[in-house]
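Data deposition worksheet. Section B asks for the primary sequence of the deposited chain exactly as it was used as input, without tags or linkers unless they were present during the calculation. Section C holds the resulting structure in token form. Section D is free text for depositor observations; keep each observation to a single sentence. Incomplete worksheets are returned to the depositor.
Section A, Depositor: J.P.
Section B:
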Amino acid sequence: MQDRFDNPGRTRWRRFAAMLVPATAVAGAIVFGMANGAIAASFAVSGQTFKVSASELRGDGFVQYGGIAEESDGRKHPVAVSGIRNAKLYDLCQSVKVPGAPVVLTINAGGGGEPATASGLMIDMDSLQGDATFKDINIGQDASTLTGGPAGARGDVKAFGQQADTVVIRDLRQVARSTHAGTFNLTGLTMQVNVGADAEECF
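Section C:
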């Protein structure tokens, strides 16, 4: 499957992104990341995914469109690019599993009713699950005309996009490739390296 996307033409990538986002929109959508295109990525992605979960995410100013995450060797990954101007995340968990080893790095924050907060969040994600509620949402908007999210967060002309005034996602489960935020306040931050039987991811 990956070989089909190693060296695609520009048009093929745009078509893939246009097909990807509607499916993600039906499932729910959002949380942090790294934009491609309108917002230039400041780093090459590692190629490894990580997991993020939260009991609830509340955000103002949501946008989503198709994009591509690129590794330093040029390998490309189709992603759903999502952004929120301001977000609160309750019971946040992020985990990264070491390939080929029973080792997991886990970060927790935003517990005890004191959420983690962030502004200017953008994400490159592979998948998302949860119960989502959007207010004043436009689905199928030209991605180049998106104005509801973080400044400059928009995709290609005539590509599929969506935006909403607010978003609430409960029981969030997300697989992502990169995360970027203008500010990210992790209330009650704890970080732990788990090995062996204790090496469990967020979900």
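Section D:
Helices lie at 10-27.
Confidence is low (pLDDT under 50) at residues 1-42.
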